[in-house]
Specification:
The complex is a heterodimer. By secondary structure, chain A is of the alpha/beta class. Helix content of chain A is 35%, strand content 24%. The chains are: A alpha/beta, B alpha+beta.
Chain lengths: 257, 129
């Protein structure tokens, strides 16, 4: 049987996300001991030995919340039916952030490069092999060619996924946005003028009955306002917005100027 | 797959660390050693490292990783060696304000709770017993 340490290593090497829950303190429960632990992966128990059913339920639920926050934390769990109070440390092993660049035009090239520098796992996709190929994207982790919305549909999108919609036409951006708008992605950004974006959102409201708070999660027009002029600068403005969303900055000059 | 004409290339995820703390732990466990793993589980006030920072202590008192250097690390090391001997986990409260023995300028003024537990190769199977 695979040991816990092997499973922890596998989570990291496979680029997956996991939470290691360790019992630190126990009050009023004779069946659980400090040091009991378990590894949660994909919402399921993947290793370790917490056998107490009520504790395990509470741990699985809390692990999900920790993973979403991407922050390790100690949590006091009050178990139902007099199951005692148990302090559990949740250690989050976050998966590396993944960037999906939809559309392989002139912005995608510097965007993929910048994202690799920033340690993202990068997938680029387009329906034109002339654009989506290894010559243009030597550092991308994956280069995919095919129907863009169809590829997005089958891709695994998690809370550590960031999606950039920069296809060659609004029609395609909109199709791809429809495919991903309900996904758990941490960030969805779409390129375009304010006018076109408003028209797109209006169609979403009227034709698709998409709720306002769902529409509001889309970053469009994409990027931070840094006065961009070149494709490289636009790519930087997009990556800066993504880092801001990921890390929670204000995007203001630190000097206050 | 992505339909006709799809090309799908996967590469190794370059970001995957081959030298994470768990790789280091595994190396020691495979040699049959018992280790103490000390983790900062909560903090109050100003502390040198964040919640989740880990330090490994071997039975010989070697240290890998850091939970903040001078500030209280010596106390944790002493306790860790006892944990290796008894294999019973414990939580140590490190009061960085109280650290009058330390002349180090690294005194931070916060409090941190450090959970120390022993890891050894057969731990899981023994526990299951």
């Amino acid at each position: 049987m695979e040991s816990l340490v092997d499973q922890l290593i596998r989570v990291q090497e496979e680029g997956a996300a996991g939470v290691l829950a360790t019992v630190v303190e126990v009050e009023r429960n004779g069946e659980v001991q400090p040091g009991d632990n378990c590894l949660v992966r994909d919402g399921k128990l993947a290793g370790g030995k917490i056998r107490h059913a009520r504790l395990l339920d509470a741990v699985l639920k809390e692990a999900e919340a920790r993973l979403k926050e991407e922050k390790s934390k100690m949590v006091s769990l009050e178990l139902p039916q007099g199951g005692g109070k148990i302090d559990v440390f949740f250690e989050v092993l976050p998966s590396p952030p993944k960037l999906i660049v939809v559309g392989c035009g002139h912005i995608a090239v510097p965007l993929a490069k910048l994202a690799k520098v920033l340690d993202f796992h990068v997938t680029v996709l387009d329906d034109r092999i002339l654009f989506a190929n290894r010559d243009r994207f030597p550092d991308a982790d994956e280069v995919r060619v095919g129907d863009m919305a169809a590829i997005l549909k089958e891709m695994s999108i998690t809370p550590s996924t960031y999606i950039v919609l920069i296809t060659r036409g609004h029609k395609y951006d909109e199709l791809c946005l429809r495919e991903t708008i309900y996904s758990p992605a941490k960030y969805i950004g779409m390129i375009g003028s304010r006018r076109r974006i408003q028209a797109c959102f209006q169609r979403f409201r009227e034709e698709e009955k998409i709720a306002e708070e769902v529409i509001q999660r889309v970053y469009a027009p994409i990027g931070l306002d840094i006065g961009t002029e070149t494709p490289e600068e636009i790519a930087l403005s997009i990556m800066a917005e993504i880092v801001k969303v990921r890390r929670g900055g204000t995007a203001k000059s630190l000097s206050g100027k | 797959m992505a339909g006709p004409g799809a090309c799908h290339e996967d590469r190794d995820i370059k970001g995957a660390k081959k030298d994470s703390i768990y790789h280091q732990i595994k190396e020691f466990l495979d040699k049959g050693e018992t280790l103490a793993v000390a983790t900062i589980v909560s903090t109050k006030g100003s502390t040198p490292r964040e919640v989740g920072a880990k330090m490994i202590v071997t039975a010989w008192g070697e240290i890998l990783g850091t939970i903040g250097g001078g500030c209280g690390e010596a106390d944790v090391k002493r306790e860790a060696i006892e944990v290796i001997q008894t294999r019973r986990p414990r939580t140590v409260r490190v009061d960085l304000l109280d650290d009058i023995s330390s002349d180090s300028p690294a005194v931070c003024g916060g409090i941190m709770n450090v959970f120390i537990e022993a890891w050894w190769k057969q731990r899981e199977t023994e526990d299951r017993g």
